[in-house]
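Question thread 4412

I'm putting together a teaching handout and wanted feedback from people who do this every day. The idea is simple: show students a protein as raw sequence, then show them the structure tokens that encode its fold, then repeat with a second protein so they can compare. Below is the first pair exactly as I plan to print it.
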Amino acid sequence: MARVRTVAVIGGGIAGPVAALALRKAGIEATVYEAYPHPAHGIGGTIAIAPNGMAALDIVGVSEPAAAVSWPVHRQMMTVGRTRLELPALAGVGPLQVIHRSDLYRILAADAPIEYGRRLVAAVQGPGGVTATFADGTEVQADILIGADGVHSTVRGLIDPGAPGPHYTGMIAVEGQSPATVPEEAGTMVFAFGKKGFYLYGPALGGGTTFGVNLPHRPLTIAEARAIPPAQWKNTLLEIYGEDSPAAT
């Protein structure tokens, strides 16, 4: 097999830049092609990165700046009704690191070679590699093409047009921060399960409570979800979880 020298990575979110940085560390020229015309600064909620994920970020040289803007979760609890259980954890591997997606994206985008406004529409495998065609009419040739373009992946559909697509789970996730405090130690994350949904919460960095709520809801586009006023989301939380929920404050 001929040595791989060039790679086109489709998708400039989190996985794409990480893949490109890792390939470049291995001496392979890799470029990320992102469909949107501008960077995704300020977009997204939080991500909990497990120790093996932090190890991967360390390989590509961004674990230290990522850790500097994240906060550790040393303890995870689960509650179902009145039952409260501590989830087991591996010893000696370090905590989860919770980071805002926009912060992780900013760190990765600063180092990874990303070309914006490149929406993939076709990819053809030839004897010398892959030719990727974008909506603006430009073409790129590479030895290998990697799809890191998310749950609605264009690359997946090009490889296998019959591949099953994503299915709506019947739940919608809402994330936020409340000034209310919860009686939990710093570095604790609690997963609370009920009949209609579940939410997770824990002490926020700098005070208050960080929470995420998963609610039964009809499908919404991102634009539709963002158009709903905060007060309407709060009323929905109150109906499901009650006045005492930190997520409803």
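The second pair follows. I'd like the answer to focus on this one:
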Amino acid sequence: MDRDRDPAGRARNARPRDGLGRPLPYGAEGVERQPEGISRTPEQTLSEAQKLLDEGKPFHAHEVFEDAWKASDEPERALWRGLAQIAVGLTHAARGNETGAEALIQRGVDNIWPYEVDPPYDIDIAGLLRWAENPKGVPRLYADPPGP
């Protein structure tokens, strides 16, 4: 069986996806996927991810955080991983999988809470931790949006 491959020859599932990342049948019209492996500054990552969360696209926000996670080293690697896990948790909640959502949001919390004392990039870690206690609505990455 032939596998879908990207231009570099890496295995990639080319099936179209719905807005929550679920695979659709080949030939179906899906939602454009977030490009992978984009190098962004932390501020660009946070801005893009918040925009996607606000648009109801947590799966896509997860992909933005995943790029940062894969590109980072310690001590921030766990931060980006945790933010990606929270976005995946939101994706599961939107898909109706509450058990999976709770588990992933908790994993995200486990990864971001150590940054609460000295949050990098003005991320509102304390606010995200409060939100995770009752995850309704869209989480805010900043207490006050950063200026221009």
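Top answer:
Good format. For the second protein you could add a caption like this: The two ends are 51 Å apart (CA to CA). The mean pLDDT is 89.
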